[in-house]
Amino acid sequence: MQDAPPQADSPLGHGLKQRHLSMIALGGVIGAGLFVGSGTAIAAAGPSIILAYAISGALVMLVMRMLGEMAAANPASGSFSVHAERAMGPWAGFTAGWSFWFLLCVAVGLEGIGAAKIVHGWVPGVPEWAWVALFMLVFCGTNLAAVKNFGEFEFWFAALKVGAIVLFLGIGVLAILGWLPDTDAPGMTNLTGQGGFMPNGVDGLIVGLLASVFAYGGLETVTIAAAESEHPVQGVAKAVRTAMWRIALFYVGSMAVVVTLLPWTAEEVAAKGPYVATLDHLGIDGAGQIMNVVVLIALLSAMNANIYGASRMANSLVRRGMGPKALGQLYGGVPRIAVLTSSAFGFLCVLLSYWRPDDIFQWLLNTIGAIILVVWFFIAAAQLRLRTKLERESPEKLVVKMWFFPWLTYVALAGMATVFVLMARESETRTQLYYSGGLTLILMVVGYARQKAVENRGTGVPQP
């Protein structure tokens, strides 16, 4: 099977500029999981949360480097689904693609519910389900229009998130140095006091590690968006290369600031979120409301990006003969039927948040808990096989190269296997592993059966 030339895998629009791609990559690493979810991770791991985020960040760096290598060689709106199909067969592309599509669709609903809770706190007279419906209408409409509209929305959303993080880090560093008015440098007190750097031992570090792994989801969208950019190869190469330092700065840096300035045992870290708790501790007026606005922006940004990513993944799958043909229809370069279908679950969440407001969030979270790890596994397995083929047949396409191939690819696969084992050990994450594993197994069986049926008919499978 010959590799396609390095271009998009469908006649989508090409309205994304380099500034859009760069900011999508930058904004994709800053989500609500960082702003809010990291609080419970700190409560479990203590100061060793810095180590947890560094370890999981290293794994994500390897995954993004592998994905960047394949995406630069063959930009495709189906991203890793296309690469998995090339490497392992249609069943792998089917499984990776539709599992990621399901992940994004459910995430849209989760983010809508989370955003609605924030706005409901400001305007309690309007029910949460009404806010979910409003957000879904806005971002469904945005994605039905030309792709440049999605790019502009995401550019400014990401710019606001990045600005908030940079400002927080700047204030935090000044406070650590004791250069803020009415503040004293904390030194190592909070890092080594209260039970030491690893107060809950290895078990606490493991809980923090698992929480941090899933906070990194969202980086994959940039390789999907690259297919609709003006210069796909150069765009994805630059975006992936610069993603490395962002992970260290935004995630590891933020955690270091929080646990240096605040005792990890402080109840407000988990209750308010680490960023709000830190700013309140420093006596900055209105910190809670400021961060609520930032978290709202992060959630709305994620809704926008996930509807986009889901619709493009569905479109790519259909164009490769892996789904209903209607989803592949384009209108002005936009897969509008795929956008509407990918948004449908978000609208369903309007009803779910009305019927089951108390437990629907956790149930949905369990369903998609480990899918991102499944996707990463397909990325690593595909890169392991495709790199050798590219070196032999098309070495000029290796614009981005995985470091120390194949050894670091094996390290990444071992890291993913370790996370799966750790999830099985912990009661809270074991349920997520069962749900996500069951969905993945079903998709694998369906994908393999479909592949065999096509082969038996002798019609061949459309090439990615």
List keywords for this structure.
464 residues, mainly alpha, Amino acid/polyamine transporter I, disordered N terminus, transmembrane, Amino_acid_permease_CS, transmembrane helix
Description:
This protein has 464 residues and is mainly alpha-helical. It has one domain: Up-down Bundle (Amino acid/polyamine transporter I). It is built from 19 helices and no strands. The relative contact order is 0.20.
Question: Summed up, what is this model?
Answer:
The protein is an all-alpha fold. It contains 19 helices and no strands. It has helices at residues 18-28, 32-45, 49-73, 79-88, 90-122, 128-144, 147-176, 189-192, 201-215, 221-225, 232-261, 267-272, 274-281, 287-319, 336-355, 360-368, 371-393, 407-425, 427-457.
Topology:
Layout (H helix, E strand, L loop, with lengths): L17 H11 L3 H14 L3 H25 L5 H10 L1 H33 L5 H17 L2 H30 L12 H4 L8 H15 L5 H5 L6 H30 L5 H6 L1 H8 L5 H33 L16 H20 L4 H9 L2 H23 L13 H19 L1 H31 L7
Subcellular location: Membrane
Family: Belongs to the amino acid-polyamine-organocation (APC) superfamily. Amino acid transporter (AAT) (TC 2.A.3.1) family.
Pfam families: AA_permease (PF00324)
